[in-house]
Amino acid sequence: MLKMYEIKFLPAAEKYLKKIKEKQLKTAYLKAIEVIRQNPYAGEMKRGDLAGIYGYDVRYAGVNYEIAYTIYEQNNKLVVVLLAGTRENFYEQLKRYIGTTTPEGK
């Protein structure tokens, strides 16, 4: 049996997911997280400023949502969810967020 990836959430993603009140939207996110846990390469690899980050689309009630994450293959197979939210301005927010959480600070 394939080993599933461990999932960890950075604070911004965890806070967003905890604040979701709509049960069906939360369920859509949890299903997406489960797909990522089983196959993190199901998401789309980003390029340019976001190289090394994957994005997974979540559609709910005609609105596009997104989960951004990174994959670590060493040792325990880990996926770190960086950010989750609506697609509008998502990548601008992500660039700002990773700029404050990466050692390079860019």
What's the total helix number?
3
Number of DSSP E strands: 5
| Oligomer category | single chain
The percentage helix is: 25-40%
Average residue pLDDT? 90
The rough form would be described as globular
Which class do the helix and strand fractions yield?
alpha+beta
Characterize the main sheet.
Answer: 5 strands, mixed
The CATH architecture comes to: 2-Layer Sandwich
Rg over alpha carbons: 13 Å
Determine the strand fraction and express it as a percent band: 25-35%
**Alpha carbon gap, first and last residue:** 39 Å
CATH uppermost class: Alpha Beta
User: What fold name stands as the CATH topology?
Assistant: YaeB-like fold
The neighbouring-strand order within the major sheet is 1-5-4-3-2
Order of helices and strands: EHHEEEEH
- Unreliable runs, pLDDT <50, ≥5 residues? 102-106
Count up the domains. 1
Secondary structure: elements and pairs:
Layout: E1 6-9, H1 11-19, H2 23-38, E2 44-45, E3 54-60, E4 63-72, E5 78-86, H3 90-101
Parallel strand pairs: 1-5
Antiparallel strand pairs: 2-3, 3-4, 4-5
Give structural notes.
This protein is an alpha+beta fold and 106 residues long. It has a single domain (6-101), classed as YaeB-like fold, CATH 3.30.2310. Helix content is 35%, strand content 30%. It is built from three helices and five strands. It has helices spanning 11-19, 23-38, 90-101; strands at 6-9, 44-45, 54-60, 63-72, 78-86. It has a five-stranded mixed beta sheet, with helices on both faces. β3 (54-60) and β4 form a beta hairpin. The longest helix is centred in the first third of the chain and has 16 residues, at 23-38. It is globular, with a radius of gyration of 13 Å. The N and C termini lie far apart (39 Å). Residues 102-106 have low confidence and may be disordered.
